[in-house]
Design goal:
Length: about 290
Amino acid sequence: MNKWIARLALAPAAIVAFGVFIGCLAYTLALSFTSSRMLPRFEWVGFEQYEKLFASSRWQVSVENLFLFGTVYIVACLLLGYVLAVLIDQKVRGETLLRTIYLSPHALSLVVTGLVWSWFLNPQFGLQAFVQELGFENFRFAWLSDPKMAIHAVTLTAVWRGTGIVMILMLAGLRGVDAEMIKSLRVDGVPKWRIYTQVIPPILTPMILTSLVLLAAGVINSYDLVVALTRGGPGISTQVPALFVMEHFFARGDVGVATAGAAIMLLSLIVVAGPLILWRRIASRRQEAAQ
């Protein structure tokens, strides 16, 4: 009875939230098939906006940047997060302090993170200027002004921020591993490095998949970080799909192309996150059945 009362109490808010979400989503998709420019215009043009989108060099650069950024970001966060979790799991002193330090970057907003790193990477008063003042006058670290290295600066910043949450998830998984199993493997002469590289990772599959979903969502939603750090520059060297959509929607007054880009972003997120979520559920059920 209490369960039904709670459901009835939450129903109005759930209906409104679901209606707004689905309504806005359907409206955005509908606009992507129209000739809308500055303002919505419901003149059906089929896939014309999508053809313009994929013919745009800006969109092509955005997708290439997103692929490079996403690949390095996800792999680096998973590897570094797991390594940090393993190190902390060795019963080190000051574990609480270390966990706080590693997780603190994730508590910062993307805008604050981007601003702080833009100062740190600024050649006028950042790391380059600091090292040069120490006497190393030939030292150069001006990634933000280099079109070839700017996207790597964005990736480095994102990895610094995202590694902590992966570390926490992995550490929670490590604390759930049977200690007796590890002891028996050590008694059998299995090196500790092999335990952490071959035995434990399959056990942490649910945690790895959860991390992948969170990181994939962060890759798609990289707008705030790019704007705060580089504003898409130099030129369009750090342009990403989210920034492309916002620029075409507000600055360029091309609603049709902007909504088409947003639709492709949504489809990409579904294609990437959908199988991961399904795989995580299957892995969780198998793990529960094994227990």
